């Protein structure tokens, strides 16, 4: 049974690595491989030694035929012991590298390369010590040193895992955005479950595999892999713990992958939909724009003709003015749609979040001059942005929020613009007190030409444009919506300068 759950854990880690293809997934894969290498070596060693209880045999080998096959593998004990030592020594290294990769504490981020090199040194020393010729040279005739070295290595392993766990827990507690916290929770639970599985078997020293015939080694009190101290119930509990940790780790690794996969998949779907409509829309815009230009000329001629001697001058002039306004509005919307179809140039330059907030609010007040915006700036960082495009995107979200609050019938429609530092990100949040976005529409609202508003005044390009602008800034766009409470959009921009002080 243990072999099956280990294979499940490894397959899941490989799946995550292939899906995400980032350094963090690689480190998690390294932890899983080290676990598999260590435990596979222990299982083969126990099979070769024999003398196991029935419950232990069922837990380790599942069927007697597997134990017999492993027992006669042509693998010398020295090599087998070193295989176990490799898995046992490298697992803490991958665990600490995982924690260093996830932490956003500036002190560690600025020294990441040096810390990675330093982290490799103790495991390298452990592997040198456990190398069979070196081990026998160090221990031969000096058995008193064996318990000391065993405890030194074990303390080092525990220190690595403790440091990694502390870094990851601190990072989790320092994360405040719901989407970040949810994503990191999967990584943290996966890390903890794999580490628990490792610790269930790493407390024993692989050096015993080199010295199975030395009675003094047993006299030193070093516990053995084939110890029968566990009763039958103990093996059942151990088996359940192993299955639980593997299932929990596998589930959270898959969930961690699914978030990134869903984002990428949604981007591809939106791009395909827009590409399919793009050419037809361009032709449509060009044709309708020419018609509107002709309509404008016709309007001028009609106005001059009717101005001479109209039977009902006021009414005709009112109708003519309405026609002119309609034409001008259509031209503006066509130009906006045409700009959305084309690839707009983005020029990134350092700007402060204060500038971004001020410009976005000014644009908002150009459309809704009497509606106040609550602005909360908890950071004054610089960001790398195209101020024109990004402020327009933020303004679009503010306008959508205000219109949603009005549509919900709120007596006091409220829109809020918050900017805060979230570890290695600068987050721009727009929040409203509308009725929220139904779950079945939360993915559709970013599609081009999708709108739940009056199609005579809205073409459904706003959120697609916002998402496109955010992506061009190497950022991410998220939403959190609560029924009857409102919606928050989060624009997450990479930190421009890690040395800036808050």
Describe this structure in words.
The structure is a single chain. The protein has about 500 residues and is α+β, with helices and mostly antiparallel strands. About 65% of the residues lie in helices and about 10% in strands. It contains 16 helices and seven strands. The protein has helices at about 1-20, 25-50, 55-60, 65-70, 75-100, 105-110, 110-130, 130-140, 145-175, 180-200, 215-220, 230-310, 315-340, 355-365, 385-405, 460-470, and strands spanning about 350, 375, 380-385, 415-420, 425-430, 475-480, 485-495. The strands form two sheets. It has a five-stranded mixed β-sheet with strand order 2-4-5-7-6. A hairpin with a 2-residue loop joins strand 4 (about 415-420) and strand 5 (about 425-430). Helix 1 (about 1-20) packs parallel to helix 12 (about 230-310). The two termini are about 50 Å apart. The relative contact order is 0.08.
Quaternary form: single chain
Q: What's the Cα radius of gyration?
A: 33 Å
Number of DSSP helical runs = 16
Give the N-to-C terminal Cα separation.
52 Å
> Element order, helices and strands?
HHHHHHHHHHHHHEHEEHEEHEE
Which residue ranges are poorly predicted, with pLDDT under 50 across at least 5 consecutive positions? Answer: 454-460
Task: Report strand order across the widest sheet.
Answer: 2-4-5-7-6
Which secondary-structure class do the elements indicate?
Answer: alpha+beta
Q: What is the mean pLDDT?
A: 75
Shape: elongated
Largest beta-sheet characterization? 5 strands, mixed
Count the beta strands.
7
The amount of beta strand, in percent, is 5-15%
User: Helicity, in percent?
Assistant: 55-70%
